[in-house]
């Protein structure tokens, strides 16, 4: 069984025998990839939830993603997961909810981008059809909403409601991947480096492709572009932290891909130069600077900024170092953190954390 040790006792989760040939990995990494998570209680549940970036109610009220309820019986139940960062859909009880054709799903997306906020009918029409609405658009919209309500009726914690002047989706924001991504990134920016790098990785794993894939209205294009900028900022923030932690070696391929996609982004170029230099590839770092300088001059008619020039000087002189991470205030009350390891085979898991404090 999964056992989470904490101050003053243990918390026990779903039963499972200890299988042979186990492969150890960290609890957050394993459960972050699984479609289910165990029932926990008390302080241990709060710690596990914080590690995974999960809302408190999803742990304490026995909410479990996927089909774990059918496998483990009593003590498990389904939790809805709304996905907008990639193929759009509602995941519940281990399967996709049938929300209809593309235009009907566009109505759901238009509401889910702003959960728990009333969206006016005219704004909904514009989000779904842009400047080419059909005749009797309001009647068509009401038909889509009626069918969506029926489709989502059995889904827990996801309701489309009529309000004065428009409609809203009642949903826990953390069940929508866009809002969970933003929450994790915000927490990463406030955390110490080792904690921040894990939070950034959890946030970036939520992306499964282009945001709002298959939707082509002007509103969708605008929202998609904004979300991709947020993703790029999170990737750059993750790279900053990883470089401070000395993880330059495995950053090079990822930064190389990002710079190829955004060749005029001086922040990414500087990060790539630092990673290359620290990996013993000084000549490649200088070549990257020359390439970026030429592109900036040809495309924008400007020279590299002060930050990139400083990195260039550091590479030339062989004296390149990043500033130390800014000190962050310590929390007044330290909270226990789940840092166990898991031995896992499909459908089975076991974990043991550190011994309880004396």
How would you describe this protein?
The chain is built from 14 helices and 13 strands. It has 358 residues and is an alpha+beta fold. The protein has 3 domains: 3-63, no CATH class; 80-245, Orthogonal Bundle (Arc Repressor Mutant, subunit A); 252-321, Tetratricopeptide repeat domain (Serine Threonine Protein Phosphatase 5, Tetratricopeptide repeat). The strands form 5 sheets. It has a 3-stranded antiparallel sheet with strand order 3-12-13. Strands 6-7-8 form a 3-stranded antiparallel sheet, with no helix packed on it. The longest helix is centred in the middle third of the chain and has 27 residues, at 218-244. The radius of gyration is 24 Å and the shape is elongated. The protein starts with a strand and ends in a 6-residue tail after the last strand. The model is unreliable at 1-48, 54-78 and 323-358 (pLDDT under 50).
